Amino acid sequence: MLTKDILNPAVSDALNFIEKHHESVADKTMLLLAGDCMVDYRGRARSFLDWGERIIMIKQDGNVLVHQPVMREPINWQPAGSRTSFNVTKDHLILRCSHTRPPEKMKIIFRKIQFVTVTSLRDKAEQIISGMETDVINEIISNPSMVEEGLRISKREKHVKSGMMDLFGYDLEHTPVVIEVKRSLATISAVQQLRMYVNDIKNDVEEASVRGILCAPHVPDMVKNLLADYNLEWKEVERHVVLPDDFQRSLKDFKK
User: What's the whole-model pTM score?
Assistant: First the structure.
């Protein structure tokens, strides 16, 4: 990874630096600028952001992000494939970003620059997410006894009139069991969802007794009370988050 930067440059020096190290290889380098700027956006809407100190990030795929000192999301942005040009006018460095579909453009004017950094990053890794609802569902399928001894899962993602339930099975007494899984906090809406699925099964199979169990890592008392009102059940099921990597290496391994 090759990185070059310039600190507190005059706007003309910043432009020369960008032209030399970024513009000819914009698809291979990431550009970061920090300084006092204002932003004028025109496209699906119109916005104007007055002077303030911000970081501008131009990624290797053309994404342009304007970040303020607070908040996670950028205050302004342009999507991948955007074209960006640079010039100096009246002691201001001007960035013009444009995108054709949808048609939109953004102009960023710097009157003072704190730093400019050009770097080239390589990253072909794909994010692996663990701990989602599907992980909990897979655990229950592999080990139904974590919900109840003798439980048998016969169907995953069973379609009924009101939607698609997560799991369907039978208990030791051969009573149909509907299971709704939530990856975090069980909510009132989850109770209503489970109730509709249970009613659908009762209508389809004409069973006098159909059980419904809401599974989640945490079930608040208010939700438990509502489940009891509807003659439904709950089970707190912990998620086992396992990522396929080597986080368990010792400190000695990192020193090698």
Answer: 0.56
CA–CA dist 125, 140 (Å, integer): 29
Q: What is the pLDDT of residue 20?
A: 94
Same domain, 50 and 86: yes
Report CA-CA distances (Å) from 19 to 88, 93, 125, 229: 12, 12, 30, 69
State how far the Cα of 62 lies from the Cα of 84, in Å rounded to an integer: 8
pLDDT at 254 over 60: no
Query: How many Å apart are CA 82 and CA 2, to the nearest integer?
Result: 23
Rounded to whole angstroms, the Cα distance separating 169 from 177 reads 5
User: Does one domain contain both 74 and 100?
Assistant: yes
Task: Render pLDDT for 231-241 as a digit per residue (tens, 0 to 9).
Answer: 999 999 876 55
**Residues of the domain holding 14:** 3-119
Considering its fold, how many domains does the chain have in total? 2
Is residue 112 located within the same domain as residue 137? no
Q: How far apart are CA 50 and CA 34, in angstroms?
A: 15
According to DSSP, residue 23 is labeled: G
- State whether 20 and 89 are in the same domain: yes
